[in-house]
Amino acid sequence: MDNTMDQGMNKDILKVLLTEEQLHQKCAEIGAAISRDYAGRDLLLVSVLKGAVVFMADLMREITIPCAIDFMVVSSYGSGVKTSGVVKIVKDLDTNLAGKDILIVEDILDSGMTLSYLTELLRDRGPASLRIAALLDKPSRRKVPLRADYVGYEVPDEFVVGYGLDYDEKYRNLPYVGILKPEVYTK
Length: 187
Ligand code: IMP
Ligand code: MG
Fold this sequence. Notes:
single chain, alpha/beta, three-stranded antiparallel sheet, 22% helix, binds inosinic acid
């Protein structure tokens, strides 16, 4: 197998925004804050597949208090690339949320449409608390007023991939976050 750089994904990346070391450091910081804030609580980390799996996997190992994890699969209604905000639950949580302290773990907060719909939905299930941890935040793109309680990094309005984030289901396995070369998605 040819293993040269130009056969790999690195050639499609315009610029590395966040290195593996920076991402690891940030997970450690957020994990420590969560461990302090949720001490003695009944913490459940909820993540929406698939973009947040890498962040979830790294973050949960930086949390030093007992916690459970669960996953949801959702799909946006309507066609095209624009998020309508109305999502269909493809796979629901296995856990009853009543009385639990829910922390939604998200890869990136963009328009905020998906998450604002989801938080309403989960709030109706009677959790003790409901908060959001987002690795990345693009505040300039927000369409609904929503902020995360824990934010890793603010990023500019560019299309980023890696560390779970995809373009056309690819690049999720890049260990860093980078800006994708525009020619990749315009060709
Ligand atoms: P929104 O906040 O409802 O607009 O949707 C956020 C979702 O869009 C994220 O969970 C990602 O799956 C996806 N997304 C937004 N911006 C990017 C990006 O720059 N790269 C990859 N996926 C993105
Ligand atoms: Mg996502």
